[in-house]
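Input record, target 12 of the design panel.
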């Protein structure tokens, strides 16, 4: 090729990063409809898929005795037909809107989640209001949901992580406390549920005066006030007094429970206790310290158990709010969070893995976290927040969490400020307090014949074996 035939490539200028803009978790506007329903709304320009969260004050501890799971069946039945549409018709109407509707029950209450294109919001809100105002609870539909739930239970019990969670809650909480039993009910209690039970629970606890709706997205082209008044605002119901929230008590005496799974090639670990919820001043430091301990692949537990020893694909430490209530002026603390470490290891290395895990906890207490660990955790927790809340659904879900947990509307924004200001010493103290080595209940789902003696030799608590 001659010099004259040589071609050159012209490159476009490399894009340059723009100037960083300050970010804060969005603040909602709060209002109350004429029927008493509370509305939190948050306009998010450009978010053409609008997210709606409905928070119903129908917690699991309100379920009648012997009917554990009725809140779950009620939540699932809300979209299975109304006074205007059969179950099939209601599903078809949602599909025409391009909308999705989900519901679930938890210790704090029932949540109903709607996502819909902005242009279809009025129609979808009408369907949502219809489901809340006049659900059919047809015998055939409730019976089908009960059968489906009964089919799910054996699969959950066969799942090692779900089985470990079931055992941990049963260990921590007294048997008479609802929190000690499966959220969605057992085979015995679910089998008793019928349409009359579902309707009775609905009529006792579902009403606009105790309901909050969160609406997030770009609704600039919609008269949201008018749409809300015509849909959710048309729902009627009586007033209700706030339900008392009993305090959470738990027994976290250090001990080990093995759920026997003969022949299991790996052991599922779940180590936990009950600690303070988000109303406690230590929460931000606890979040940061727990993240340093086991929040990501670069955390201390993973570095030792995964990278150095090769016992596991990953171990995580986390805090999960179980139930919160408004702060008690008398000093009571009815709220609580589960503080836990979870993961799985191969069966022969169950004992060594637990030994090293306890060494990590003891080292944390003796030597503390490093500034580098703290800085990485802050960067991961605070720095990625704008990405975490890119969608309307993520913002709506967090605002709904705040409502359920009786937190102020600016809680999440203030939490990020607190995380950034929390020092290494504070984070260390909170993590050590969250996971004291003598106050941890350890549940192992695995082959007891192989793991009992090695675990017993560690001296981390009395070891008992239950059937799987």
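The sequence produced for target 12 reads:
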């Amino acid at each position: 090729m001659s010099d004259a035939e040589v071609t050159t490539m012209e490159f476009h200028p490399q894009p340059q990063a723009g100037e960083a803009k300050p970010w804060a978790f969005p603040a909602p506007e709060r209002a109350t409809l004429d029927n008493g329903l509370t509305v939190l709304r948050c306009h998010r320009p450009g978010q053409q898929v609008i997210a709606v969260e409905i928070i119903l004050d129908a917690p699991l501890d309100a379920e009648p005795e012997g009917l554990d799971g009725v809140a779950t069946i009620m939540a699932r039945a809300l979209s299975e037909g109304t006074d205007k549409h059969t179950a099939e018709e209601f599903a078809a109407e949602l599909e025409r809107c391009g909308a999705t509707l989900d519901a679930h029950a938890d210790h704090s209450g029932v949540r109903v989640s709607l996502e819909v294109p902005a242009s279809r919001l009025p129609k979808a809100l009408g369907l949502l209001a219809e489901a809340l105002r006049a659900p059919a609870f047809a015998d055939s539909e409730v019976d089908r949901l009960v059968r489906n739930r009964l089919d799910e239970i054996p699969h959950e019990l066969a799942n090692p992580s779900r089985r470990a969670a079931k055992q941990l809650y049963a260990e921590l909480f007294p048997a008479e406390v609802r929190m000690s039993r499966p959220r969605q009910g057992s085979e015995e209690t679910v089998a008793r549920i019928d349409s009359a039970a579902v309707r009775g629970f609905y009529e006792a606890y579902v009403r606009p005066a105790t309901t909050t709706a969160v609406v997030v997205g770009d609704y600039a082209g919609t008269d949201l006030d008018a749409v809300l008044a015509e849909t959710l605002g048309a729902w009627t119901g009586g007033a209700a007094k706030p339900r008392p929230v009993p305090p959470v008590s738990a027994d976290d005496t250090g001990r080990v429970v093995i759920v026997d799974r003969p022949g299991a090639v790996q052991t599922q670990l779940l180590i936990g206790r009950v600690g303070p919820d988000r109303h406690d001043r230590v929460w931000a430091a606890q979040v940061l310290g727990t993240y340093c301990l086991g929040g990501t692949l670069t955390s201390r537990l993973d570095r030792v158990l995964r990278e150095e020893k090769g016992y596991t694909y990953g171990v995580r430490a986390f805090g999960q709010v179980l139930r919160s209530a408004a702060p008690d002026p008398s000093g009571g603390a009815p709220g609580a969070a589960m503080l836990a470490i979870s993961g799985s290891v191969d069966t022969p290395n169950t004992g060594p893995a637990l030994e090293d895990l306890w060494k990590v906890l003891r080292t944390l207490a003796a030597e503390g976290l490093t500034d580098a660990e703290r800085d990485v955790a802050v960067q991961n927790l605070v720095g990625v927040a704008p990405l975490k809340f890119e969608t309307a659904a993520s913002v709506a879900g967090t605002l709904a969490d705040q409502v359920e947990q009786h937190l102020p509307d600016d809680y999440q924004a203030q939490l990020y400020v607190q995380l950034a200001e929390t020092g290494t010493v504070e984070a260390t103290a909170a993590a050590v307090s969250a996971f004291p080595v003598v106050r941890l209940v350890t549940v192992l789902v695995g082959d007891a014949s192989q793991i009992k003696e090695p675990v017993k030799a560690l001296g981390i608590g009395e070891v008992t074996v239950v059937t799987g």
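Residues 139-158 form the longest helix (20 residues).
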